[in-house]
Design brief:
By secondary structure, the protein is of the alpha+beta class. The chain is built from 9 helices and 11 strands. Strands 9-10-8-11 form a 4-stranded antiparallel β-sheet. Strands 1-6-7 form a 3-stranded antiparallel β-sheet, with helices on both faces. The chain has a two-stranded antiparallel ribbon with strand order 2-3. The longest helix is centred in the middle third of the chain and has 24 residues.
């Protein structure tokens, strides 16, 4: 997520990017339960997306094998990085069914998106679906929850530098959304005020991005991070915890801005800069602070078939 966290759940615009860390989904053959064989990363979202695609296209044979190792951390892949592994699994499962029926993914990408979104929503209804749209469409996607079919890709602004930092802390999106919903239930006015602030900043960010105004993008990112921190304080949820605050401080010192990517509480942060010099200054500061810059870039391709 580049911008729009929490606000997208209330109808605001979000920008989300596909990155070059891929899940791999294979359909075919049967898993040998007796031998303890199972999908590398079982994903109920993928099962639902497959079921919905098959409801329209017809049944397919074989079991799903899912590998999301590239979206996880640690020698055994025990920790998620917060890069949307469940969304990627749902997108891949819908796409592999389409391929099994001989469909052209480029021509049928919107249908694949519908199955993937519905499958993901069936398991995680609290999610926006923005990450699913990025996985299917690729590139940077402008997304609104009420009109997922209208999701569209945007060009990356010339001169804008992006860096992604792994906090080393794994966070569960559902836990933070639950706390924010509890705050909403008990403090409707305060919640409304904070969401209005987030929504306004999300719209400014998206408009600046579409206009290619890199200075405004960086300014908006900084303000959005502050707004997320204010929501966290109000909801008694560490949305911007210590490491994320430290990343934001290092980005400011380097001449840019950083914010959580996703629900916060850990996972990854995104940092924006108007020059490569500033971005490299930030990288050096992160290395000194023992923070890991992930080797990620925006991937213009969404779901695709591989031989």
């Amino acid at each position: 997520m580049l911008s729009g966290e929490y606000a997208v759940l209330e109808g605001a615009t979000a920008l989300v990017a596909a990155v070059n860390a891929r899940a791999f989904i294979h359909l075919g053959g049967s898993l040998d339960a007796a031998a303890g064989e199972e999908p590398a990363r079982p994903a109920p979202e993928a099962d639902e997306a497959r079921r919905l695609a098959e409801a329209e296209l017809g049944a397919t044979e074989g079991d799903l094998r899912i590998d999301v190792g590239a979206l996880r951390s640690g020698e055994d892949g025990a920790m998620k990085l917060g890069l949307g592994s469940s969304a990627a699994s749902a997108a891949g499962a819908a796409a592999v069914v389409a391929l099994a029926h001989g469909l052209d993914l480029e021509l049928e990408r919107r249908r694949v998106l519908g199955w993937a979104l519905a499958g993901h929503h069936a398991v995680a209804p609290e999610g926006s679906g923005a990450d699913v749209a990025a996985c299917v469409l690729g590139g940077v996607v402008r997304f609104e929850r009420a009109q997922p079919e209208a999701a569209r890709r945007l060009d990356w602004p010339e001169g804008l530098e992006l860096r992604v930092v792994w906090t080393g802390v794994e966070a569960r999106t559902s836990d933070f959304i639950s706390k924010v919903r509890a705050f909403e239930a008990g403090h409707a006015t305060g919640f409304s005020s904070l969401v209005t602030r987030l929504s306004s900043e999300a719209a400014r960010f998206a408009d600046a991005f579409e206009a290619g105004d890199v200075t405004a993008i960086v300014d908006c990112a900084g303000r959005y991070g502050h707004a997320m921190e204010a929501l966290g304080r109000a909801a008694d949820a560490p949305i911007v915890e210590y490491t994320l605050r430290r990343v934001a401080a290092l980005a400011r010192e380097a001449g840019g801005a950083a914010k959580p990517s996703g629900a916060g509480g850990g996972d990854v942060a995104v940092a924006f800069f108007t020059s490569r010099v500033a971005a490299e200054r930030f990288e050096r500061a992160c290395r000194t602070a023992k923070m890991q810059i992930l080797d990620l870039r925006v991937d213009p391709e969404g779901v695709r078939a591989e031989a």
